[in-house]
Amino acid sequence: MTLYVSVTLVFLLLFYFCSCSSLSAAATSFATDESFDVRQHLSTVSRYGAGKETTIGSYVPSTIPEGCNPIHLNLVARHGTRSPTKKRIKELDQLAIHLDELLNEAKRGEKSLPQKIPSWLSGWQSPWKGRLKGGELISKGEDELYQLALRIRKRFPELFNEEYHPDIFSIRATQVPRASASAVAFGIGLFQGNGTLGPGMHRAFSVTSESRASDVCLRFYDTCETYKEYRKSQEPAVDKLRGPILEEIAAELVKRYQINFTRQDVASLWFLCKQEASLLDITDQACNLFTASEVELLEWTDDLELFLLKGYGKSINYHMGLPLLQDVVQSMEQAILAKEENHKPGTFEKARLRFAHAETVVPFTCLLGIFLEGSEFERIQRDEPLSLPPKPPLPRSWRGSTVAPFGVNNMLVLYQCPGNASHSTSASKGYKSEYYVQVLHNEIPVPMPGCYNTDFCSFEVFKESIVNPHLKHNFESVCTAQAKEEFPSPKPSSIACKLLNFIRSFFQRDSYGNAKINQKNEL
Question: What's the pTM?
Answer without folding.
Answer: 0.86
